[in-house]
Amino acid sequence: YEGRAIMEIDGQTSRLHLSKVTMKDSRRYQCSVMIPNDDEGTTAATTSLLVLVPPSPPICRIQGEAAYWHNVTLTCMSNEGSPIPVYEWKSYSVKNTPRQFPPKTIEKDGALSLFNISRDTSGFYICTSTNRIGSASCNFTLAVTPGNMNIGSTAGIIVGVLAGVVLLGIVILCYCKKKGKKEKYAEGGKERHDGKGSDVDSQRYQEDQQDRRRGSRDRLDDERSHYSGSQDRLDDQRNRSSGSRDRLDDQRGRYGGSRDRLDDQRDRYRGSRDRLDDQRDRYGGSRDRLDDQRDRYGGSRDRLDDQRNHYGGSRDRLDDQRDRYGGSRDRLDDRRDRSAGSRDRLDYIDDQNKNRY
């Protein structure tokens, strides 16, 4: 208080003068009286000094993020003011019209708490600081946004949106192609079936496919039956070949009987040949000529044996070729019979010559 405080004493009164007071000078002051050898009664008294100061312009701030569905707090504070100022908030819409606070709003000691803010919470907020000698105010503009988005989240959202658009385009393209095929098939079905519904066309198309499969299966069965018939005809040919073989055996049996009869004739003429043995010496030349003829016929007989060996090499091939070579075998047997007849005629000539001499 140097230079600002002056104390005056006049008889029984004391005065204290303070100049250029400030808010710091607001306090309680005590005055004490000291009387030598007298300590009875009241020796001190106190008084209060209140320096009145109007509120300084308050400072408005926000605590929290002004984003959808967040909670924020608006604060208002004056650095000076004596006595202590009182704070009051007022709200105005974006069109600068007064309005009530949203529900659940709390206002206390210059702090205005807003909960679950939205776009409707945006607007102008005015705080007024007031005491006995003056007032001051501050304005705050609240703009509620969807929220702060960093680059990473923004890029992720963009990529996700693009991927969704591409996927949606692919789905739409596939759907259009599928629908186009269905319409094309429906138009073709209408042309084939005189304009009937696509469901009926699909059902008839499936029935046609089944009929085609049945027809292919029937043709396969017919081919099998055809091959079975060919196999039956082959069996019939085999049976006919067996019948020809049996007939060939019968012919052999008949020719075997002829040979037996020839053997009997040879036995009958064998006695005559014994009687003519003596005369054979006389007619040796003739007999030699007959032997030469026999040799010639023997050569023919050897050739016949060679042919038998040629056709007797493979019994299976002979069985298959019997029908083909049966006639040749018959001709060979005929030649044998003719050769045997020639031999009998030679024997008969010998007998006549013997009887003649």
TrEMBL record:
Region spans: Disordered: 185-357
Spans through the membrane: 155-176
Pfam families on file: ig
GO cellular component, one term: plasma membrane
Alphabetical keyword list: Immunoglobulin domain, Membrane, Transmembrane, Transmembrane helix
Domain Ig-like positions: 54-145
InterPro entries per record: A33 (IPR042474), Ig-like_dom (IPR007110), Ig-like_dom_sf (IPR036179), Ig-like_fold (IPR013783), Ig_sub (IPR003599), Immunoglobulin_dom (IPR013151)
PANTHER family named in the record: CELL SURFACE A33 ANTIGEN
Protein name as annotated: Ig-like domain-containing protein
